Amino acid sequence: MRLPSALTSQSCTMDRCLRPTLAITLSVLALAIASTSAMAIIEKLHFGDHIITFSNLSLIDARTQKTDLCQKRYGTSFTTTNAPDTTDLSVKRTTEKGHDITVISRNVDVTNGIFSIESQYEVIFPDDASKTPVNLNVSITGLIGDSDASGLFSDGTCRGSIYVQNKQTN
After folding, report:
1. CA nearest to 91, candidates 45, 55, 30, 144
2. Distances from the Cα of 145 to the Cα of 7, 40, 55, 142, angstroms
3. Fewer CB within 10 A of the end CB, N or C, for the chain?
4. How many CB atoms lie within 10 A of CB 165?
5. Does the global pTM surpass 0.85?
6. pLDDT reported for residue 118
7. Per-residue pLDDT, 16
8. For residues 75 and 142, what is the distance between their CA atoms, to the nearest angstrom?
9. pLDDT interval class at 117 (50, 70, 90)
10. Tell me: the pLDDT tens digits for 61-82?
11. 123 in Cβ contact with 132 (< 8 Å)
12. pLDDT of residue 34
């Protein structure tokens, strides 16, 4: 195996040795800062009490016969709280209206003072006697430091706009 000349040379110039090391160090530092910001945003928007407001509710397929289904599922708003059975591995939420919500996945991006979160949840709606979970996809954006975010959601049947606000700042 032959080593690159930069590793076998006795003399190390700025171009050959220090710049790649500096670039790697700065990349790792930037990733750590972004990860810390992302974790802070997740903590702020996924834990604690939040007021979730829904608007522009509509059926994805207008031919669906249950025209009031979206309104029954989401209403105009509800407040989420941490569920008693939340663990480090399974984040669960409940609402005052009886929704059971489990966080399935989250993806956070932080860029230039703006964050975006794409999340997938399993929701059991209070009026569903079968207790069948529905997959809910949510995409929200906000400004870092703010206590609210807005975006869009879809559960495969219903879609609309969503506004998330930390209840402590309301």
Report:
1. 45
2. 45, 10, 24, 9
3. N
4. 20
5. no
6. 95
7. 55
8. 23
9. very high
10. 878 777 789 999 999 999 988 8
11. no
12. 47
Give the tokens for residue 68. 């009031």
Does domain 39-169 match CATH 2.40.128?
Answer: yes
> Tokens in use for 127?
């009026």
Mind giving me the DSSP string for the chain?
----HHHH-S---IIIIIHHHHHHHHHHHHHHHHHHHHHHHHHHHHSS-EEEEEEEEEESSTT-S-TTHHHHHH-SEEEEEE-TT--SS--EEEETT--EEEEEEEEEEEETTEEEEEEEEEEE-TT-TT---EEEEEEEEEETT-SEEEEEEE-SSEEEEEEEEEGGG-
Q: Which pLDDT score, from 0 to 100, does residue 35 have?
A: 46
> Residue type for 121, please?
Y
